[in-house]
Amino acid sequence: MDRPRRSTRPVQVGDVQIGGDAPISVQSMTVSKTHEVDTCLDEVQRLADAGADIVRVAVPRPEDADALPDIVQGSTVPIVADIHFNYQYALKAIDAGVAKVRINPGNIGKPEWEREVLLAAKEAGIPIRIGVNSGSLEKDLMDKYGYPKPEALFESAMRHVEVCRRNDFEDIVISVKHSDVFYMIQAYRLVAERTDYPLHLGVTESGSLQTGTVKSSVGIGTLLADGIGDTIRVSLATDPVEEVKVGHRILKSLGIGRPGVNIIACPTCGRLVGDLFSIVEEVEEAVMAQNFDKNLNVALMGCAVNGPGEAAGADLGVSLGRGRAHLFKHGEVVRTVPEEEIVDAVLHAIETWDDDAAPAGDGAASSSEETSGEAAAVKSPELPTG
Predict the structure, then answer these.
(1) From 3.20.20.20, 3.40.47.10, 3.90.78.10, 3.60.90.10, which CATH number describes the 11-253 domain?
(2) 32/35 Cα distance (integer angstroms)
């Protein structure tokens, strides 16, 4: 099924396009001090290895701005400079060769300072992200609305879009992040309805790995499902590598991410006849570690009620019985596997997967004594043994 997608103008961030017909990119931000160059570059590389397309670094000090040439030179992904309060750091970042500058309209200062940054960015041919946050809105907008409502975030963004337009600068990405998921969704919808600029999605200050994942999945996922959003950053109070992982999972859940393995697993109930939790955890960890470049749905199911149907509907599936499981490929049972070998069997099937190969059995039929009563209820031909 074709996914709806809001039409936006393309913006180039290094070798990564945001907007237009480009895939939705995943971003993160370092937590190390930018001026500690080796440490910062190690973190940038960890994020890149995890799947970050773009990495942002904080520039709150003069020494951070001075370190940017080394950071840009040593990075394997485009670097974005995050600027607050001091516009001169933005000018230094542009001179250092960053791929994009993020400025916060609520604290960047005088319009003439913003204009100077825009002119420098235009000359360098790099984009600006207008990054509006609920926690740092302009005072007059807070006085007007009394709270960082969606309309306040929208008005702040549009105010600075107008500054860009007056200076003939259109290479813009917009974000209107809020810590309240509902308000965040409404703010982005306002911008999406009235502009064609690409949008950087995120729920700001979303919380810990567990809480923040839920909030970000609801906020970012809702907008992406409506075709809104061109790049995403999941903000979590934990190792930023987790932000990248969650970001890719959000995209994968909507079928709009890069190629990869999508794990389907049942929540289990009293019908469970094996240690599905451990199986799911081991398979997911291995899949994330090996970063398979294959679009596969893998169903790991705990019994013969929904198990055979889900497993048969996936590319690759497992339906547990007592002490063993049926392994499905393209809806056909191809073998039975002892429970202790399920993880290895699934990973081997992923590693050797060939989309053009028809499923085939690999042994003699098993008896009903070898499989559980539930697993034996699968509607299939004679079941080959593993």
Answers:
(1) 3.20.20.20
(2) 9
